[in-house]
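Standup notes
- DV: blocked on the single-chain target, sequence here:
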Amino acid sequence: MTGQLLANDAALVTGATSGIGAAIVRALAREGARTFLTDDTTKDVGALAHSLANSGSETAFLAADLNTPGSCDRIVNAAVQRFGPISILVHAASPGSSEPALEVSERTWDEMLAVNLRAGYRLAGQLGKIMMRHKINGRMLFITSLHAQTPRGNPAYGAAKAGLEAMVRELAKALGPHGIRVNAIAPGSIAQNWFPKAEPTIRVTPLRRMGKPEDVAGIAVALLADQFSGFVTGTTVTVDGGLSLHNWLDGPS
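- DV (later): unblocked, structure below
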């Protein structure tokens, strides 16, 4: 197919088998990118990679737990060995959490920050150096959350995602002079297996529906394609159907 936006790119995607991560992977593949997938489940990430390969996309995968020291190095080495210098990083991996304030276990806290922040920073640092060495106009995209912006009863998740947004700004400032763009997407309520449709949320969302993983994937492609966002870096794009416009003083309209 001609006119593909990412035909010259090789992308490394973490959290590749989640709803949002998998939708982004498929969108990148449709736009011609070679994709290296990683997640912590061999069966799921392998199945997605084989599905993409069967549809004609060039893809590879490695199952790895980002909470494990050394996992980022293994992922980057495997991706570079397979595809050469990587031009796109999408960090979508994150554990889930529902522990309220003052009840977050140390294990949950450590894992949340390790997968989101430690792994995100390590991957960005390694790939950023590769991009600079090969003079690649690279792009990095981090998936954050509305939890980063307002308290929503999930402090470990919110703190990790807020940290990611701060890291995005730091990386964008540091890597910008080398032609590398760094941005984030903050999804709102996206209907996935672990987060089904919720009528109360729909009632306070101006667009009156839950989001779909594909809603996030479309914005991801736009942010990663220089044709659309070549002068955009250090920002977080909210994809929430207007949910963040809701004032808690207002009742459902």
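- Follow-up: The chain is about 45% helix and 15% strand.
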